[in-house]
Design brief:
The protein is mostly helical. Helix content is 57%, strand content 1%. Among the domains are: 90 residues, no CATH class; 160 residues, Glycosyltransferase, CATH 1.50.10.100. A two-stranded antiparallel ribbon has the order 1-2. Helix 4 crosses helix 5. The radius of gyration is 23 Å and the shape is globular. The two termini are 24 Å apart. Bound molecules: 2-acetamido-2-deoxy-beta-D-glucopyranose (2 copies). One 2-acetamido-2-deoxy-beta-D-glucopyranose binds next to loops. This is Alginate lyase domain-containing protein. GO terms for molecular function: lyase activity.
C-alpha cells in the first residue's frame, strides 16, 4: 500500500500537474507517514547531489541529521500550504532529473557512428576482427628487451597505450547508452529511444557485419602473451544495467522477439564460454574486486537466461567468498589495500559489493544484512572507510597513490542509510557531499544521474533501478 501511495505521488512519467496529496484519514497512518519522512529526506539528499539541478535546497537544509528529521516532520505535519509547496519542490526536482536523463539519452540518440569491435586497426592475435581486444592497463613496455616484450606490471600506473585499442571504450559506451536510452523510453514511452537502444544491441551483439564474438579471450592482453588475462572479463560488468532495462525495452515494438532471441543466443554462448574457459574460472575465484564484479555480471546474466537456481546458488556462495573472504572483522578490505591505489580499490570493491548485494536481493539472498563468522559485513566495510573519507585519508595505514576522493562513497553512505538506518550516516552525509562537490569542481566529474533513480527504487523497495 505504501508502495502504491508513493508511486501515485512520485510518478515515473512526466507529471502534467503538480501531484496532489490525497486527503482522508488513511493517508496519515503512521507507517505511511514514516515512508513519507524517508522519501522527503531522500529527496532533499538527492537535490544536493545533482550538480545540474536548478533547484537548491541548501538554504533550507539544516546541518545535522537529527535536525533534518525534525524539520521534515514539521514539513509534512504542517498546514496544507506548506505541503503543497513541498510537493511543488519535489515535483520540480523530478523535472530536473528527467531533464538530465533525456539530455543524456538525446546525446546517445544523435550519435550515428558505428560502435563495433571490427573497426579497430589492431586485431586480436586470433586474427578474427570480431574478437574483442583490450590491453592490460597496468602493463608497460619492458625497457630491457629490444621489442619491449613481454610487457611488465606497474600496478597503479595506467599505460596510456590502452587507448590505442578502442574496444573497451566502445563496449562501455554502448552499455551506458543502451541503459540511458532504455531509461528514457521507460520514462517517456517515446519510441525513438527504444529504436536506438535496439539498434545498438543489434549492432554490438547480432549483426554479422559488426558483432562481437561471445567471449573475452583477448581481454586485458599483456603484449607478448599468447592469450588475454582473466581480468579482462571485468570489462563487461556494466551489462547488469542493460539486462535490467530489457524488460522495459521488451514492451516496445522496436525490440523485436527476433532481437530478443538473438540476444538470448549470444548470452547462452557467452555463458558457455564463462562455464568452460579457464580465464573465467580464474576470474570467478578472484579474491579481490575481480571476484566481486564477476558475480555482479554473472548473476543478472543467469537471470536473463532463466537460470534462476544458478543465480541463487552464485548469490549464496557470494556470502562466503566475497563477504567472508574480502572483509575483515573491522571492515578492512585487505585484498584491496595491498594495491598501490589502496583507497581507490577499497571504494571500488565496496561499490561492487553494493551492486552485488542488490543482485543477490533479486536472486532471493540477503547480503545487505549478512554477517560473516568474524562479524564482518558490507556495513562494517563502509564504516571502516567513512572516518578516513571525512579526514581526507589522515591515518590511512596503507601506502596509497591518487589521494582520497569521496565522490563514489557518497551514494554508498546514502543507500547505506536507507538500508541500515544508521544515524551516523546522516551526520557524515552533508560533510561528504560538500567534499564531493569540491571534487566535482576540480575534476569536472559528475555523478551519474541513475543514482537518483536507484535511490527512488530503494525507497519503493522494487528493485526497478539498480544502483
Ligand atoms: C559517437 O561516439 C563515437 C565513439 O565513441 C565518438 O568517436 C564520436 O565522437 C561520437 N559522436 C558524437 C556526435 O558524439
Ligand atoms: C521523442 O524524442 C525525440 C528525441 O528527443 C524527439 O525529437 C521527439 O519529438 C519525441 N517525440 C515525442 C512524440 O515526444
Amino acid at each position: 500500500m505504501e508502495k502504491t501511495l508513493l508511486r501515485s505521488r512520485l510518478p515515473m512519467t512526466f507529471p502534467t500537474t503538480v501531484p496532489v496529496r490525497p486527503t482522508g484519514p488513511k493517508v496519515f497512518t503512521k507507517s505511511r507517514l514514516v515512508t513519507f519522512l524517508v522519501a522527503g529526506i531522500c529527496y532533499l539528499f538527492i537535490s544536493l547531489l545533482m550538480s545540474c539541478s536548478r533547484i537548491s535546497n541548501e538554504n533550507a537544509l539544516p546541518a545535522s541529521g537529527s535536525t533534518i528529521t525534525s524539520s521534515m516532520e514539521s514539513y509534512w505535519l504542517s498546514d496544507g500550504a506548506a505541503r503543497a509547496s513541498a510537493f511543488k519542490e519535489l515535483s520540480n526536482l523530478r523535472y530536473d532529473a528527467m531533464d538530465i536523463i533525456l539530455k543524456d539519452a538525446d546525446v546517445a540518440l544523435r550519435n550515428d557512428s558505428v560502435y563495433s569491435v571490427v573497426l579497430k586497426p589492431q586485431v586480436a592475435p586470433s586474427g578474427d576482427a570480431h574478437d574483442y581486444l583490450s590491453l592490460a592497463k597496468y602493463f608497460w613496455r619492458n625497457p630491457d628487451t629490444p621489442d619491449g616484450l613481454p610487457y611488465i606490471r606497474r600496478d597503479g600506473y595506467v599505460n596510456p597505450e590502452v587507448e590505442t585499442v578502442q574496444d573497451y571504450r566502445l563496449l562501455r559506451q554502448m552499455l551506458r547508452e543502451v541503459y540511458r536510452l532504455g531509461l528514457a523510453f521507460q520514462l517517456t514511452g517515446n519510441e525513438t529511444y527504444a529504436v536506438k537502444a535496439s539498434d545498438r544491441l543489434y549492432e554490438w551483439f547480432v549483426n554479422p557485419e559488426t558483432k562481437m564474438n561471445p567471449h573475452f579471450h583477448w581481454g586485458s592482453l599483456r603484449k607478448g602473451n599468447t592469450h588475454g588475462s582473466r581480468t579482462g572479463i571485468l570489462d563487461m560488468y556494466p551489462i547488469y544495467r542493460v539486462i535490467q532495462i530489457m524488460p522495459h525495452l521488451q514492451k516496445s515494438p522496436s525490440y523485436s522477439p527476433q532481437l530478443h532471441d538473438a540476444l538470448v543466443e549470444w548470452f547462452s554462448l557467452y555463458w558457455e564460454w564463462l562455464s568452460t574457459s579457464s580465464l573465467a574460472s580464474q576470474e570467478s575465484k578472484g579474491v579481490n574486486n575481480h571476484g566481486t564484479y564477476y558475480d555482479v555480471q554473472v548473476i543478472p546474466i543467469a537471470r536473463f537466461l532463466n537460470k534462476h537456481d544458478v543465480a541463487k546458488e552464485i548469490a549464496t556462495h557470494a556470502l562466503s567468498v566475497r563477504v567472508n573472504r574480502q572483509i575483515k572483522a573491522n571492515g578492512w578490505q585487505h585484498h584491496e589495500t595491498s594495491r598501490p591505489t589502496s583507497w581507490f580499490y577499497s571504494v571500488f570493491n565496496l561499490q561492487g559489493l553494493f551492486l552485488l548485494a542488490q543482485q543477490c536481493q533479486m536472486a532471493g539472498v540477503d547480503m545487505w544484512h549478512y554477517v560473516g563468522p568474524e562479524g564482518q559485513s558490507i556495513k562494517t566495510a563502509l564504516d571502516y572507510l567513512i572516518p578516513f573519507a571525512l579526514n581526507q585519508g589522515q591515518g590511512w595505514p596503507y601506502s596509497n597513490l591518487n589521494g582520497y576522493p569521496v565522490t563514489n562513497l557518497v551514494p554508498l553512505v546514502e543507500i547505506g542509510y536507507l538500508k541500515w538506518g544508521d544515524e551516523a550516516y546522516l551526520h557524515a552525509m552533508p560533510l561528504l557531499r560538500a567534499m564531493a562537490e569540491k571534487e566535482r569542481d576540480t575534476n569536472h566529474n559528475t555523478r551519474p544521474l541513475s543514482d537518483f533513480f536507484c535511490q527512488m527504487s530503494e525507497l519503493l523497495g522494487d528493485n526497478e533501478f539498480v544502483c
